Amino acid sequence: MGKIAKIEYFRVPPRWLFVKITDEEGNFGWGEASLEGHTQAVEGCLDSWIERYIGFEADDIEHIWQMSWRTSFYRGGPVFMSALAGLDIALWDLKARKLNVPIYQLLGGKVRSKLKVYAWIGGDRPSDVETQALARKAQGFRAVKMNATEDIGWLDAPSALDSSVERLKAVKNLGMDAGMDFHGRVHKPMAKQLAAALEPHRPLFIEEPLLSEHIGGIQALSSHTSIPIALGERLHSRWDVRPFLEGHCVDILQPDISHVGGISELKRIAAMCEAYDVALAPHCPLGPIALAANIQVDASVANFVIQEMSLGIHYNAGSQDLTSYIKNPEVWKVDDGYIELMTGPGLGIDVDEEWIRSESKDAKAWYSPGFIGPGGEIREW
């Protein structure tokens, strides 16, 4: 046993927030509390917990999780749960490193030795999509995800959906699978049309076909399409997830480990999904610590199907990418659509602390861009 001696956080480019916890014996672990566009809010939450949790037993991961959830009166939400994720992941990493085993060994052991992955592609024209998909194929990927549409009006011209179909066809013609991310930017009058237009071309899934606040609309859409419906990045706990499972309107759940309170809660959510025959495909356009944490859970649950990874995504400008803050970037090598399960202790990555500390100096917070329509109206991003 070792008491928590220090909790630090580091704001680093392109838009990530890393957490380091050190105990009195010098054992340490890394977590990720990234919440895109709301870094300062999460930092404020972490500030209050740093003062509170110094002196707690670092091994008591569940106790600290429950203290954070149950003694604060106000619960849940993206800021609170992202801050908790940073602590939770770091505590799991610390404990597993101390025991010299991968985290998945503490979660019941592995049920697979490699994991299916996909990456993001952009582009507005089919030719752009084809070029980027070919580049991903050359990297070893066999599945990609892309935005289903650009910014779109509440009721837009039906022809605005034509390019979505053509871009999906361009990827499928390369022998690759593609998930289509509606990104919550498509409202019901257009979402119904878009799902129907895409269905003959068999996307891997449609993601966030409507915002998760519209569960009735998602239920209705689910009953009218055979395309698997994926969502979950804006659900922040098992309690947020429950109505979607009970409503039988989600086929693939995509919780984000950095927004749901970390490894502890993702493991619980995975078990809930299994009871409803719902697949798990964790959302992760974030950094290497979040991805490594996802992989530890993916390795240990039966209903895992595919993992998002942000390798080379457009947010990761310049030298800041999945490979930037770790010393063993070879763990992200993709071969025929899969990555090998890491076998090292803790998260399985060798975090480059010197580089993190360097890059965190004067790092600016990232802000989510917005869309403005031709009439000056705000559109969903």
UniProtKB/TrEMBL annotation:
<dbReference type="InterPro" id="IPR029065">
    <property type="entry name" value="Enolase_C-like"/>
</dbReference>
<dbReference type="InterPro" id="IPR013341">
    <property type="entry name" value="Mandelate_racemase_N_dom"/>
</dbReference>
<dbReference type="InterPro" id="IPR029017">
    <property type="entry name" value="Enolase-like_N"/>
</dbReference>
<dbReference type="Pfam" id="PF02746">
    <property type="entry name" value="MR_MLE_N"/>
</dbReference>
<dbReference type="Pfam" id="PF13378">
    <property type="entry name" value="MR_MLE_C"/>
</dbReference>
<dbReference type="GO" id="GO:0008869">
    <property type="term" value="F:galactonate dehydratase activity"/>
</dbReference>
<feature type="domain" description="Mandelate racemase/muconate lactonizing enzyme C-terminal">
    <location>
        <begin position="126"/>
        <end position="228"/>
    </location>
</feature>
<dbReference type="GO" id="GO:0009063">
    <property type="term" value="P:amino acid catabolic process"/>
</dbReference>
<keyword id="KW-0479">Metal-binding</keyword>
<keyword id="KW-0456">Lyase</keyword>
<dbReference type="InterPro" id="IPR036849">
    <property type="entry name" value="Enolase-like_C_sf"/>
</dbReference>
<dbReference type="GO" id="GO:0034194">
    <property type="term" value="P:D-galactonate catabolic process"/>
</dbReference>
<protein>
    <recommendedName>
        <fullName>Mandelate racemase/muconate lactonizing enzyme C-terminal domain-containing protein</fullName>
    </recommendedName>
</protein>
<dbReference type="InterPro" id="IPR023592">
    <property type="entry name" value="Galactonate_deHydtase"/>
</dbReference>
<dbReference type="InterPro" id="IPR034593">
    <property type="entry name" value="DgoD-like"/>
</dbReference>
<dbReference type="InterPro" id="IPR018110">
    <property type="entry name" value="Mandel_Rmase/mucon_lact_enz_CS"/>
</dbReference>
<dbReference type="InterPro" id="IPR013342">
    <property type="entry name" value="Mandelate_racemase_C"/>
</dbReference>
<keyword id="KW-0460">Magnesium</keyword>
<dbReference type="GO" id="GO:0046872">
    <property type="term" value="F:metal ion binding"/>
</dbReference>
